[in-house]
């Protein structure tokens, strides 16, 4: 099972997306900043083998294509982020495709934190309606994996350590239980395998230069399912990095490709 996410930076990249989907045999393709994407052109290229997940209750700023063999239901716009339930290898996965507020407009992360809280609340509500389902957030979080809004108890409550997530499962505080989520960033981010980050930003007095804004975060049950998580530097013959940073001709973000083995799902 392969999941693909790309912030398109309002570029028309149908041919490049098609190549990425075909070359990597992508099952679920999700996007942000899709204003200029020609979905009709992309559908023609994909020869009707994929379907668009559509909502009926409001405008979304993220979008998703899935193979026609994948069933989906209850698509909705939660704080303008596409949220639905996908059946991935017979496992119901409640997924939000996220594009959170930009760090330059929300430097302290308060808006991102509020949005995450709303998304997590909605996902947990859906989970109660679908016993045995699990939650996933995928997309452009516009913050790094170790920023407060990603790890705070009443926000995403994520850990980098699958052993911790699988052992504790929840954290209790003041009479409330907060499910622990797993973020695989620490396991896969590495200069040695050229997986430094998805976005390059060198300005300001405090910068990491490479930032891992595009991420996947999952319930503890899916922690062992994530086999690989990497940012693509090239699609076919097209190089996405020029002069050591993402090529703005395509996008200022690198696409994220996640490989999962759903048979390793726990707690079923």
UniProtKB/TrEMBL annotation:
<protein>
    <recommendedName>
        <fullName>Endonuclease/exonuclease/phosphatase domain-containing protein</fullName>
    </recommendedName>
</protein>
<dbReference type="InterPro" id="IPR005135">
    <property type="entry name" value="Endo/exonuclease/phosphatase"/>
</dbReference>
<dbReference type="InterPro" id="IPR036691">
    <property type="entry name" value="Endo/exonu/phosph_ase_sf"/>
</dbReference>
<dbReference type="GO" id="GO:0003824">
    <property type="term" value="F:catalytic activity"/>
</dbReference>
<dbReference type="Pfam" id="PF03372">
    <property type="entry name" value="Exo_endo_phos"/>
</dbReference>
<feature type="domain" description="Endonuclease/exonuclease/phosphatase">
    <location>
        <begin position="6"/>
        <end position="174"/>
    </location>
</feature>
């Amino acid at each position: 099972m392969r999941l693909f996410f790309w912030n398109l930076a309002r570029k028309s990249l149908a041919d490049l997306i098609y190549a990425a989907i075909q070359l990597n045999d992508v099952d679920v393709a999700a996007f942000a900043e899709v204003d200029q994407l020609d979905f009709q052109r992309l559908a023609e290229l994909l020869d009707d083998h994929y379907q668009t997940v559509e909502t009926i209750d409001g405008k979304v700023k993220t979008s998703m294509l899935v193979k026609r063999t994948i069933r989906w239901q209850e698509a909705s716009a939660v704080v303008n982020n596409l949220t639905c339930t996908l059946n991935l290898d017979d496992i119901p996965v409640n997924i939000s495709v996220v594009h959170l507020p930009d760090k330059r407009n929300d430097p302290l992360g308060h808006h991102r934190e509020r949005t995450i809280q709303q998304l997590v609340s909605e996902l947990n509500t859906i989970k109660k309606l679908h016993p045995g389902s699990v939650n996933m957030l995928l997309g452009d979080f516009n913050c790094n994996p170790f920023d407060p809004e990603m790890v705070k108890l009443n926000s995403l409550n994520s850990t980098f350590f699958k052993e911790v997530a699988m052992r504790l499962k929840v954290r209790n505080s003041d009479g409330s239980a907060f499910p622990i989520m797993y973020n695989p960033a620490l396991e896969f981010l590495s200069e040695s395998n050229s997986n430094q980050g998805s976005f390059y930003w060198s300005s300001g007095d405090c910068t990491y230069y490479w930032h891992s804004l595009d991420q996947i975060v999952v319930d503890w049950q899916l922690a062992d399912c994530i086999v690989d998580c990497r940012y693509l530097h090239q699609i076919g013959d097209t190089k996405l990095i020029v002069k050591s940073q993402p090529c703005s001709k395509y996008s200022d973000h690198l696409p994220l490709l996640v490989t999962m083995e759903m048979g390793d799902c726990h707690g079923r």
